[in-house]
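REQUEST FORM: STRUCTURE PREDICTION
Request ID: SP-0412
Submitted by: Lab K.M.
Chain count: 1
Length (residues): 281
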Amino acid sequence: MVVSVAHLGPPGTYAEAAALAYVSWLTQMGKEALLCPYPSIAQTLRAAAQGQVDLAVVPVENSVEGSVTTTLDTLWQLDTLQIQQALVLPISHALMSRAPNLEAIQTVYSHPQALAQCQGWLERFLPQAQLVPTNATTEALKYLDEDKTAGAIASSRAAQLYNLPILVCPINDYVDNYTRFWVLSLQPATGGSCTSLAFSVPANVPGALAKLLQVFASRDINLSRIESRPTKRSLGDYLFFIDLEANTTEASVQSALEELSTYTETLKIFGSYSILPVGKL
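STATUS: Completed
RESULT:
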């Protein structure tokens, strides 16, 4: 059986690099895999939720720019996906262009996350350039053959795949730039030392969140991340994403989740999983 793995395309994106790393792990387990690129993160997740593919690999958090909100918002809308694994990739951005030098570049294209992760460098070396967001880092590369004054930010691997010259690498503002990806599917979570969940509260009243967090604190369950996102119902109405350093099979976690369900309006548990570090790509 061939395992189909969806990711943000086209080829050369960091999401594809994460998917390739996971495929390599699957191969070690004796499984065959097929990569399936999709034009957006939301479509990648929906492909897995609708059973069009077996797995989806999506970015969830960057060490510099924080959470990938499209992933969180889409995952909240879907009720069936479970996290199978987390992958942590070091990220190194390259500026590629057919311009003869930096001074000739008037426009820089890339994914909003990549542009943000290189903001300081761009302000210093290309202060006059217009920054244009694209759906994926490699989507930006199509402009380079059409416009000799255009630049694009993507991975060195993408430059090799599309035979494009690199002007400067790396250009990310922080050397320790990492992105965490989730591998999701319709199958039950495989288990591990991390658990992710999300919930909304019935009313925005003083102490509502504190009461929920105390559920974990009273049981000595450590939270490694907490993030709020608007519910999109009204201004000031939020839902919360939380990562626990624990497994849902532990008695203390089961007790916490049972109590948590009595305080929340909606509670979604995305499963327990392990984290796989991946070499530089």
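NOTES: The chain has eight helices and 15 strands.
Reviewed by: T.R.
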